[in-house]
Amino acid sequence: MELRILEPRVRVLSLARGGLWLYTHPLLKMLLLPQRSRCKFFSFIETPEDYTVMLDEEGFKAVSTTVHPVQSPPNRFCILSIAPETLPAIATILLDVLFYSPG
């Protein structure tokens, strides 16, 4: 039997509670779809002040902020009327807006 000690290359990120929504897509992808990510080490810890994420180099490359093309100011409400036949075409955009909105 041969024992090898590998040099760890882990990055530690600190995410503020208010800024977590910017990183939800890449973090959920690494957590729920590991076969689609080249990240081999992933740890997500909630602390009293913020969130701590530990990743390997490949995971660090995959983490980038999510910028969605549909944004609305937080002090304004948008009321939309959608025809039933057009709903399937924009359903994913609507879900993204609901999921990634900071409020």
UniProtKB/TrEMBL annotation:
<dbReference type="GO" id="GO:0034618">
    <property type="term" value="F:arginine binding"/>
</dbReference>
<dbReference type="Pfam" id="PF18700">
    <property type="entry name" value="Castor1_N"/>
</dbReference>
<dbReference type="InterPro" id="IPR049479">
    <property type="entry name" value="CASTOR1_ACT-like"/>
</dbReference>
<dbReference type="Pfam" id="PF21389">
    <property type="entry name" value="CASTOR1_ACT-like"/>
</dbReference>
<dbReference type="GO" id="GO:1904262">
    <property type="term" value="P:negative regulation of TORC1 signaling"/>
</dbReference>
<dbReference type="InterPro" id="IPR040778">
    <property type="entry name" value="CASTOR1_N"/>
</dbReference>
<feature type="domain" description="CASTOR1 N-terminal">
    <location>
        <begin position="9"/>
        <end position="64"/>
    </location>
</feature>
<protein>
    <recommendedName>
        <fullName>CASTOR1 N-terminal domain-containing protein</fullName>
    </recommendedName>
</protein>
<dbReference type="InterPro" id="IPR026249">
    <property type="entry name" value="CASTOR_fam"/>
</dbReference>
<feature type="domain" description="Cytosolic arginine sensor for mTORC1 subunit 1/2 ACT-like">
    <location>
        <begin position="68"/>
        <end position="101"/>
    </location>
</feature>
<dbReference type="InterPro" id="IPR051719">
    <property type="entry name" value="CASTOR_mTORC1"/>
</dbReference>
